[in-house]
Amino acid sequence: MAVAGTSGTGTRSTGSMVAAASTNNVTSFQRRGPRASGADSGCSRLVSIAGTRRSVRNGQLLVSTGLPALDQFLGGGLAVGTVLLIEEDKYNIYSPLLFNYFLAEGIVSGHALLVASAKEDPADILQKLPAPLIDHSYKKECDEDICGHKMESDIKMKIAWRYQLFPKMEGRPVLSSGFGHDYDISKRIPQELIETSKWHGFFLPEKISSTFNVESCSLTSGYMKLLQFIQNIIYEEGFDGSNPQKKQKNILRIGIQNLGSPLWGDDICCAENCDASHSLTKFLYILRALLRTSLSACIITVPTHLIQNKAVIARVTNLSDTVVGLESFIGSEKETNPLYKDYHGLIHIRQIPRLNNLIYDISDVKDLAFKLKKKLFTIEVRENFYV
Questions:
Q1: What is the spatial distance between Cα 111 and Cα 97, in angstroms, rounded to a whole number?
Q2: pTM greater than 0.90
């Protein structure tokens, strides 16, 4: 009997060992159960940040650019920790719209803002942000556009029918989902939203003392002050991703306007062979390193059409994660070309990020045009250009 008892005990211990082994050896076809570890809890907190969502491709945390159509072409949105470079159009008419959309989306989503400019006071920039577009006004705007499009399509002959399957990438109001909103450019954002939002401003003329001499007011001085300002906000406000935040996590949206222009004291646009041209690329290199370890996303507008040295443009592009170029029809031959009469310019997605890789992705969609309506800035596939 004693032997039988010992045998029963051994059987129970063997069964428990098998159960433990089956628990540890989880195959790729089985899903692990929820664990109460710090990593998983941190992941759930990242997902719960307002105005963000996870990428379906790589799980990267995304924020909206303020244009749902542009979000789709960028893989769902702008990845947190990356830089979006906007190549300004020739007369700088449409690039400020993308800049303002990005900031307005931050205010509506409850994100913190950091606005840097050498031309306008950041407080004045916030006053010019567009207002969120409500559902019924969006529907009325779309109905008018659809009716006009139908009348025109009844008269014109169908060209390249296979391209009619391409959807018009116009954003839809998703105010309830919390990610990506449409905005009315004919109205300004309510003052109550600006007052309740948290933002930081960097106005270059106020940061540089008038007692500095010409050498001290070089581009290096302006860029260094901006980098120090951004670094202080990231660390002091708790946006540093490498250190746990004491309060609820949030996203910092950084907007830098007209970077590289003479207003920043940069001579990169004034001479083809400038000795200090490396300062802009060095600034972008350090900035991207700061963003990689923080819960922040940055949009920068650069007047690339003024930069004489093409090698510098290539370096600036390589140091950015996402690059979007705007080409306006104003003053060009395309302005009178009947093929372009329904649009105001072209949008070129030159580069989209491939994080943790040595090379970047190139967008498959290359035939995009934008149209500025009374209330909306829309992006569409150029279906009428194919003959």
A1: 19
A2: no
